[in-house]
Amino acid sequence: MKIDEIELYYELHGKGKPIVFSHGWLEDCSIWNSQVEHFAKNYAVIRHDHRGHGRSDKPIGDYSVQALSNDLHSLMQKLKLEKATLVGFSLGGMAAIIFALEHSENISKLVLVGATAKFPLYPLLIVSVLRCVLPYKTVARTICKRRFYKPSKKIVEDELVRAMRVDSYVAYESAN
């Protein structure tokens, strides 16, 4: 879907009241595969790739949480979603918080998973240092291993595949 000169990839599964899933940093909408399979039986499930992630465009430019929230708002408007349950993980949760503050009339429920109101300073400092001394793939692998509590090798591998679809400049710009 074209949103402000950017093609945002999205998927719609099922019918019923809408649930919108917003993924985290260095991920794409495939992170929600299990949820789509479960919820699409009774709901209209919408998931999308944030700008710079997955199958969405990766332009040079603004990757702020505010920009991601604005994209989410435009997507929901174009899909004519008046009241949706919004589920956000990590970076997607941060965008969902801003969306909820600015467009509360468009949300029936807000579900936040591993989200904070702003990026904590300590992880930002670590990423800033690591990016100066290590290749992007090494930084991404480190983040993927630490994202979940005791992740299996398969989960880390899947996370790394998603992370490597995100260009390094997008990753670092969206972490600011």
Shape: globular
Beta content comes to 15-25%
CATH superfamily: Alpha/Beta hydrolase fold, catalytic domain
Radius of gyration: 16 Å
> Strands across the major sheet, in which order?
3-5-4-6-7
Order of helices and strands: EEEEHEHEHEHHHH
Instruction: Just name the CATH architecture.
Output: 3-Layer(aba) Sandwich
**Domain module count:** 1
Number of strands: 7
Q: What is the end-to-end distance? A: 26 Å
Category by helix and strand content: alpha/beta
Number of helices: 7
- Helix residue percentage: 40-55%
- The average pLDDT value, as a whole number, equals 88
What does this structure look like?
With 176 residues, this protein is an alpha/beta fold. It has one domain: Alpha/Beta hydrolase fold, catalytic domain (Rossmann fold, 3-Layer(aba) Sandwich), CATH 3.40.50.1820. The protein contains 7 helices and 7 strands. The protein has helices spanning 33-39, 65-78, 91-102, 121-133, 136-146, 153-164, 168-174, and strands at residues 2-3, 6-7, 10-13, 18-22, 44-48, 84-89, 107-113. It has a 5-stranded mixed beta sheet, with helices on one face. The chain has a two-stranded antiparallel sheet with strand order 1-2. Helix 1 (33-39) links the parallel strand 4 and strand 5 (44-48). Helix 2 crosses helix 3 (91-102) and helix 5 crosses helix 6 (153-164). The two termini are 26 Å apart.
